[in-house]
Structures are given as C-alpha cells and as structure tokens.
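Input for the complex:
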Amino acid sequence: MSVTTADAERLVRIGEVARDAGVSVRAVRYYEQQGLLTAERSPSGQRLYPREAGARVRFFQQMYAAGLTSRNIAELLPCIESGHTDAEQRAMLHTERDRIRAKIDDLQAALDRLDEVIEVTASHP
Amino acid sequence: MSVTTADAERLVRIGEVARDAGVSVRAVRYYEQQGLLTAERSPSGQRLYPREAGARVRFFQQMYAAGLTSRNIAELLPCIESGHTDAEQRAMLHTERDRIRAKIDDLQAALDRLDEVIEVTASHP
DNA sequence: CTAAAACCTGACGTTGACGTCAGGGTCAAG
DNA sequence: CTTGACCCTGACGTCAACGTCAGGTTTTAG
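Predicted:
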C-alpha cells in the first residue's frame, strides 16, 4: 500500500463535505468560487477534497455567522495558514475583532431590551 | 394657547426624526411601509411625527441589529404597547430571545477563534 | 420673490450568500 | 443495462433593508 494510494483514499467528494459541515452542496461550490476552498479533480471532473475540508467549511460558517464576508475570510486565510501577517492584515484582524465585540455588545443590549418586554408582559398577562 | 396647538407644536417632520435616530429619511419611510410607524399628515401631505418617534426608530435599529426582521418587530410592538401578550406572542418573544442568546454565543466563539489567530500571528511576525 | 432645502410618490437598483432550475455526464447496485 | 444517487456547468431567482433616481410640490431663509 503506497503512500500516494493511501492519500487518494482519504479524498472525499463534495456531498460528503457538505453533509459533514451541515451546508448545501451549492454552498461548498460557492466557497470555491470565492477562493476559500480549492479541490482536486477526478479524471471525470468531480471535485475531491481532503477530509479536513469539512472542518474548514465549518470555520467559514462560524466566520459568516460573525458577520464576515467571503472577502474578509479570504483575507484571513493566508494569516492562518502562514502564521504570518503584514501590517495591513493585522489591521484587518483587529478591525474585525472590534466589529464582533461591538456586535456582541449590541446583541446584549437588544437581549436586555427583550427581556424587559418579556418580564413586563409576563406580569401583565 | 390651546392644548391642540401645543400638541401640534410638538410634531416634527421626517428629516428630524431621521437625524435624531441616525438613519436615512428613506429608512423612516420604509418603516412606515412595514407598519412599524404611523404618521399624521400636514395639509400638504408631509409626514408629522411625535418627538418620541426618534427613540422608536432607534429601538427598531437595535432590534434589526439583533437580527429581527421588520415582521418580527411588527409582532413585537403590540406586546410593548399593550403590556399584554397572548400565548403565541409569548412564544415568539422567547424564540427571539433564545435566537439572540445563541447568536451571542456564536459571536463569542468566533471572537475567540479570531483572537487565537491574532495571538499566533503576533508572536510570528 | 426667489432659490435652496426639504418633502412627496413611485419605481428600479444593490448586496451577499446562497436556492433552484435546465440540461447533461458518471458510477455502484441489481 | 438501466435505474437512481451523485456530480458537473451555467445562469437566473430570492430576500431584506434600504439606496438612488426621476419628476414634481412645499417650506424656509434671505
């Protein structure tokens, strides 16, 4: 059993990646289009991904949920993969971090407002 | 100085409401279209709002920021104004509350992920 | 009185992350 | 061998909260 054969056996098709990450097949293709994901191709043209692709896609979802755009994530990836950043990238990271922090505070405030409403209407049924 | 005159003097036009709330005039018209806001009309057809309209719009913004839709907010308003809720409304309130809580947790997780990246890339410049 | 600022009603345009449909290959199972 | 699950590439559709433009009336400042 050669190494290359073992490697090939670890490749999965797009459907499995999607199921693994809990997103649609269309979404995975979209991520590729946005430059977030690359895939080998089988002789017949089918996309082949390493197993980690699922986790990678879940990471995308996490960033999307935090309000990052595909472009933001694309800029973020080189930082993660190289473990190295230039000034511009560091600025971007801090900008996004601060944006998320602000958003958390906004959400917390909204939550408090809603809890107020819930409390008031609970005592006045 | 009659009461009605004094009331009339407290009415403001759409531009002031917008500035007060930090949104566009277009947005305020949109909120009316969504049934979130009603306005009297001057003889010439211009919208006239009570002063509290600004605060009301800021409340909308806060809810929008929390991910509520116009429809959600519209359902929410009667609860606030009447201080009374039926079962369906209470369910809605709790659903939205839980959604926001979950979103805060998601954001916190994303923030931690980003801080990881920032820390790693800071020590590997 | 006049010009600028503010307002009005449509109605089409924008953005992002996909959904969905059309039309057609591919591949293990029976 | 054919059926059904899965895959491919376009390319148009969606949804929400507005932006923006057109074409016209009203209000306000000087």
